[in-house]
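Audit log entry. Action: structure prediction of a protein-small molecule complex. Ligand: zinc ion. The ligand was supplied as SMILES and no pocket hint was given, so placement is left entirely to the predictor. Protonation state taken as written. Sequence taken verbatim from the request; no trimming, no tag removal. Recorded inputs:
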Amino acid sequence: MNKTQIKKYLNYLKVKKFYKMKFFKCEICNEKKTKLIQKKISWNNNKFGDLPIHACTSCGFLFQNPRFNKEFYMGYYKNSYRAITLDTFKPPKNYLADQEKRGNLLFEFLKKYLPKKGSMLDVGSSVGMMMKPFLKRGWKCQGNDPVKSFVDYGREKLKLPVEWLQSEDMKLKDNSLDLIIIMGSLEHVTDVNIVMKKIEKAIKKNGILVIEARGDPLGYQKNFFNHSHHRYFFGNTMELIMRKYGWEPFITTKYPITGSSRPNTQFCIGRYKGNEVKKSFKNLVKNGKKETVLDVIYKLKYHDYLAKKLKNNFIKIGASHPKN
Ligand SMILES: [Zn+2]
């Protein structure tokens, strides 16, 4: 991205200060070499612009490259994010109802893996409604989110235990949590490794981690790649990031675990084992737990092909919650 391209994007975000962008290594396997996959992506509301997506040449992880620094994203999530994505600072009624419903379904799915009562954390909780079924059953809950207006609404109007912060700044008690959920938020955080390190310290042995990601594109890749997603997890990369931090994934699935409001999202659920899992991470990618750049390109091309062939008859283009 040259200066003019960056300025154009910052202008769109209504960010007045100029910020530099820099190139990143693969956040999963540390590989420096990445390959450009898509140059122009969705800036929301049918607006497209430069914001390149690269694939890691080693494990196939897809992410925005280059990117801004943390200071930029803190300000962005505080001031512009929901204003651009939901056109309002107040959570709409149907959004709240959907979060509660998703929380109920998640609880039903997870309960057989969990203690009757325990302690949970929702990273990127928004207003915090997904924790409601757990709170009702006596769980100790805490959530956090960088969008202040939604956190304020959750705390003040809904009396939910949510905190306004970037997940990189979480302060968690060591060895204190039975369950951590990250529902579609790991794509948005600024530094995924800081977040994973923090939650690893806070989880108890055998504690459960649930990651939900957007999943495969439902439709054209230029709609799928959206500027508020800094990275794109699929089944394989969710399993890799879990293993890197000591979780052993036991379900990776496209089951509609939280209902049908976010079609095509993928889930990975793991149990914390610590070093016995972490120590095997180093050779995993080398031994074939990866997607090649070609695998990734073919997958995206396949979805472009489907979208073109089937139009709206079979799949709804961009139905996978493109707006957040
Ligand atoms: Zn990689």
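Audit: result stored. Residues 26, 28-29, 31, 56, 58-59, 61 surround zinc ion (CB under 6 Å). The mean pLDDT is 91.
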